[in-house]
C-alpha cells in the first residue's frame, strides 16, 4: 500500500468534509436562498420574482402583508373622514378653538343667513323665483307753497356803439409770417377802428419763385384796389434757394444778389409810383444758425434798397434774441411777462410773438397816423350823455403803452430844467416820499458832528 504524504492527506480530509456538509444542507440553501429569523423563532421564506428593470427583486412575505394592512388602514381612515364631513363634523378640527383667521380679522366674518329667510336655489337647473315684495302705498305729500319770485326791474337796453367804417387802409404783403403780422396790427390798432388791414399774403412764397406766387402782381392789385395809406412788406424767409432761370447761381452769391435786388426794386415800384409809404419788416433770427446768418445778409440787401427808394426799414432783430445775441424762443412779451414768442419750428411766431412783431411796425405807423381825437368822438355822442358808458370808457384799452428806457437818465422839461427839480419845491416831503429832517439830538439824527 502506498503511503501518501501528510500534507496530501490533510487536503483530502478537508475536501471530504466539505462534500459531506453540502450533502446535508437543505434544498433552499443549495439554490442560493437564505432564511430570516425573528424573535418569535418563526422563519419566513423569501420569494423570488421575475427580474424587472434589468435587476432581480426579492420580496419577503412579511413585507407584502405589511403593505396590505397599511392600505386597508388608509382606506378606512378616508372613509371615516368623508362620513364625518357629510354629517357636518370634522374630527380634525375638534381641538381647534373657534377663532377668526387673518382675512376675517381684516374684513370681518360673514354673517350666516337666517335658515327661515328666503334664499335662492343653487342646484343646477334651478329657476330663481323671488317672492313678491309688499309695497306700502303712501299718500303723496302736499306740495309746498311756492313763493312768487320778485319781478325783476326792466332792463334798459344799452345803445350799441355805432360801427365806424374804416377809412384808412394798410396793405400787408408777404408770406405766412406776414399773415401773423397782420393779425398783430389789427390788435395794435384796436383803438382806431377807422384803420383797416388788408392782407395780400401767401404761405411758402417768396421773391425767388415767381412761378409759385408773384408778389409784384399782388402789389399792383393792392394799389389798384382803392385808397391805400400804408404798405407793410414782410418777405424773405423762403428765399434761401436758387432762381429757376439761374440755377447755376448759388444763393447769396454775387450774381444771385443782383437778381434778388432787382426783385426787391420791382416790388417797391408800384408803391413808389402812387406815393404810398412802404414799411419793410426785416427778418427775425431763426433757430438754425446757418439760416440766421442768411437772414442777416438778406436784411442788408433789403435795407439798402428800401432806404434808397424812400421807404422805412423796420429792424426787429433785437426783439427776438437773448442777452448774448442768440436766437431766443422765450422772451419778454408786451405785457411784461416772460412767455413763448416762437413756435417749435424755430421760424414762425406765436400769438404773443406776432403781437410783439407788430409792435415795431405800430411804432413807425403812429409817427404819421393820428387816430381821431376824443373830442370828435364826444361830438358824435348824444348831448345828454346817453344811457351808455362815455366814449372814453367804451374805447378798448391798448395792450401796451409807449416804450420807456429804464436805463436812461431823467427827462428834461421843455425849458431845460428837470421835471423833478422843477416840481420838488411845490410838493411837500410826504408827497415826494421823502422822510422829514430829523430833530437835532434825536436817535435818527445822523449828522456829523452831532448838533447839541
UniProtKB/TrEMBL annotation:
GO MF term list: hydrolase activity, acting on ester bonds
Cross-referenced Pfam families: DUF459
Signal peptide feature range: 1-29
Family annotation (SUPFAM superfamilies): SGNH hydrolase
Ranges of compositional bias, category Low complexity: 376-392
Keyword Cytoplasm: no
Superkingdom per UniProt: Bacteria
Comp. bias intervals (Basic and acidic residues): 423-452
Gene3D superfamilies: SGNH hydrolase (3.40.50.1110)
Cited InterPro entries: DUF459, SGNH_hydro_sf
Region Disordered, annotated ranges: 109-152, 376-398, 412-452
Keywords on record: Signal
Name of the protein this chain belongs to: SGNH hydrolase-type esterase domain-containing protein
Amino acid at each position: 500500500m502506498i503511503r501518501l504524504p501528510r500534507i496530501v492527506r490533510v487536503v483530502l480530509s478537508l475536501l471530504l468534509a466539505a462534500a459531506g456538509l453540502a450533502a446535508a444542507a437543505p434544498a433552499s440553501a443549495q439554490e442560493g436562498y437564505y432564511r430570516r429569523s425573528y424573535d418569535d423563532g418563526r422563519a419566513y421564506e423569501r420569494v423570488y420574482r421575475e427580474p424587472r428593470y434589468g435587476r432581480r427583486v426579492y420580496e419577503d412575505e412579511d413585507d407584502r402583508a405589511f403593505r396590505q394592512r397599511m392600505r386597508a388602514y388608509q382606506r378606512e381612515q378616508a372613509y371615516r373622514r368623508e362620513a364625518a364631513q357629510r354629517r357636518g363634523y370634522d374630527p380634525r378640527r375638534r381641538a381647534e378653538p373657534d377663532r377668526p383667521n387673518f382675512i376675517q380679522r381684516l374684513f370681518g366674518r360673514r354673517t350666516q343667513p337666517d335658515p327661515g329667510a328666503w334664499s335662492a336655489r343653487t342646484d343646477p337647473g334651478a329657476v330663481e323665483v323671488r317672492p313678491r315684495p309688499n309695497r306700502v302705498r303712501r299718500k303723496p305729500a302736499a306740495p309746498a307753497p311756492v313763493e312768487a319770485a320778485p319781478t325783476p326791474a326792466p332792463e334798459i337796453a344799452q345803445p350799441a356803439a355805432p360801427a365806424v367804417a374804416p377809412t384808412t387802409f394798410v396793405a400787408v404783403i408777404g408770406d405766412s409770417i406776414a399773415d401773423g403780422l397782420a393779425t398783430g396790427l389789427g390788435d395794435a390798432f384796436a383803438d382806431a377802428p377807422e384803420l383797416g388791414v388788408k392782407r395780400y399774403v401767401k404761405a411758402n412764397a417768396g421773391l425767388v419763385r415767381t412761378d409759385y406766387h408773384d408778389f409784384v402782381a399782388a402789389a399792383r392789385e393792392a394799389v389798384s384796389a382803392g385808397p391805400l395809406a400804408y404798405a407793410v412788406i414782410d418777405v424773405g424767409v423762403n428765399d434761401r434757394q436758387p432762381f429757376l432761370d439761374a440755377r447755376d447761381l448759388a444763393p447769396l452769391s454775387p450774381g444771385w444778389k443782383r437778381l434778388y435786388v432787382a426783385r426787391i426794386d420791382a416790388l417797391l415800384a408800384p408803391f413808389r409810383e402812387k406815393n404810398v409809404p412802404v414799411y419793410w419788416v426785416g427778418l427775425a433770427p431763426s433757430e438754425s444758425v446757418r439760416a440766421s446768418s442768411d437772414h442777416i445778409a438778406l436784411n442788408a440787401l433789403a435795407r439798402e434798397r428800401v432806404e434808397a427808394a424812400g421807404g422805412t426799414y423796420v429792424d426787429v432783430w433785437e426783439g427776438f434774441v437773448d442777452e448774448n445775441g442768440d436766437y431766443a424762443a422765450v422772451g419778454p412779451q408786451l405785457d411784461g411777462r416772460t412767455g413763448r414768442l416762437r413756435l417749435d419750428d424755430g421760424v414762425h411766431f406765436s400769438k404773443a410773438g406776432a403781437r410783439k412783431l407788430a409792435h415795431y411796425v405800430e411804432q413807425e405807423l403812429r409817427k404819421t397816423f393820428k387816430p381821431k381825437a376824443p373830442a370828435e368822438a364826444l361830438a358824435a355822442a348824444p348831448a345828454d350823455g346817453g344811457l351808455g358808458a362815455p366814449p372814453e370808457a367804451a374805447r378798448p384799452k391798448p395792450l401796451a403803452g409807449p416804450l420807456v428806457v429804464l436805463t436812461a437818465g431823467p427827462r428834461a422839461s421843455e425849458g431845460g430844467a428837470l421835471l423833478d427839480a422843477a416840481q420838488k419845491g411845490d410838493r411837500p416831503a410826504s408827497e415826494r416820499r421823502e422822510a422829514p429832517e430829523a430833530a437835532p439830538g434825536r436817535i435818527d439824527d445822523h449828522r456829523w458832528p452831532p448838533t447839541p
